[in-house]
Design goal:
Layout (H helix, E strand, L loop, with lengths): L1 E3 L4 H9 L6 E3 L20 E3 L6 H6 L1 H17 L4 E6 L22 H13 L4 E5 L2 E2 L6 H11 L2 E5 L3 E2 L2 E2 H11 L5 E4 L6 E2 H12 L4 E5 L1 H4 L24 H10 L2
Parallel strand pairs: 1-2, 1-3, 3-4, 4-5, 5-10, 6-9, 7-12
Antiparallel strand pairs: 8-11
The chain binds NADP nicotinamide-adenine-dinucleotide phosphate.
NADP nicotinamide-adenine-dinucleotide phosphate binds next to helix 1, helix 3 and strand 4.
Length: 260
């Protein structure tokens, strides 16, 4: 089995969840997925493709760079010829639906990142499991939980957007669900934490669970003025029979904090 993006937050969790299998974890340094696979790489088992360009704002300034990784890289992973699990995002949706997005809803990405991930879904091919997930956090890498713990320890107040609603998903829970998913039919699957919240509500929960005395000032996305547009509502749910159900995001938060 091969794990790409093994140095990322999901890659690390996948390596843990599949420990015990014969695993080849590949970091960015081992294989730049924008380039064809290194000679001799011929996985006999699953390819868990967690490598991606995840800098949502940075993609606006370098759409070709983002596409090379998210589309070209997924195509290269598919070309390995082994059963493929590819990861996609709630940002393939525009947020206008206003109630949970299911697999049969039409994507309409608002950002370069979302467009490259949607094209990456197609590059994965019909024979892949395409896992759409959202707002990932874990014990490594750059994520919202680690950023808030850092800020909350230094400041009395942080400004956080309150007009985007989604499902903060703990990578440990997602990786465990991927083990279940590979026993199910292929195709697109929505796999995200139970429950939903805004970023501001998530920040308040982080401070409460971590015992940090820091206030959250609720602001709008317009006030934050980030380069990439994000959907105002991107709650994911599955309409597919037997879909793995993840614990509530607050349980994911507690599980993550125990490791930090
Ligand atoms: N993070 C989220 O909130 C979120 C939400 C929904 C879906 N997803 C999807 O979930 C998957 C995993 O995301 P994540 O949160 O684990 O991201 P992450 O922590 O940023 O990890 C991505 C990994 O990919 C590596 N990478 C970047 N460019 C690469 C390249 N050209 N070749 C090889 N490796 C490369 C990065 O290495 P370097 O850091 O060394 O470049 C990093 O280790 C991605 O498909 C992402 O689009 C993420």
């Amino acid at each position: 089995m091969l794990v790409t993006g093994a140095g990322g937050q999901l890659g690390a969790a996948l390596c843990e969840a599949f420990a015990g299998e014969e695993l080849v974890p590949l970091t960015h340094a081992d294989w730049d997925v924008a380039l064809p696979p290194p000679a001799g790489l011929a996985p006999a088992g699953l390819v868990l493709h967690a490598a991606a360009w995840t800098d949502v704002d940075g993609a606006e300034a370098d759409p070709q760079g983002a596409a090379a990784v998210n589309v070209g890289g997924t195509q290269h992973a598919a070309e390995l010829g082994a059963p493929l699990v590819a990861f996609s995002t709630d940002y393939v949706f525009d947020g206008h639906k206003g109630n949970p997005y299911v697999e049969s809803d039409s994507p309409a990405p608002l950002s370069v990142y979302g467009r490259t991930k949607l094209l990456g879904e197609a590059a994965a091919g019909d024979g892949a499991w395409v896992v759409r997930t959202s707002w990932l956090f874990g014990w490594t890498g750059r994520n919202f939980v680690r950023a808030m713990l850092h800020l909350g320890a230094e400041r009395d107040e942080v400004a956080v957007v309150d007009d985007q609603r989604g499902c903060p998903t703990y990578v440990g829970h997602l990786a465990a669900a991927v083990r279940e998913l590979v026993e199910l039919p292929r195709g697109i699957w929505h796999v995200a934490a139970d429950g939903d919240c805004t970023w501001a509500e998530f920040a308040e929960a982080i401070f409460a669970e971590a015992g940090l005395d820091c206030r959250v000032r609720r602001i709008t996305s317009a006030e934050l003025a980030r380069p990439a547009l994000r959907p105002s509502y991107s709650v994911l749910r599955s309409e597919r029979r037997g879909a793995p159900r993840l614990p509530h995001w607050r349980e994911g938060l507690r599980a993550c904090l125990e490791r930090l």
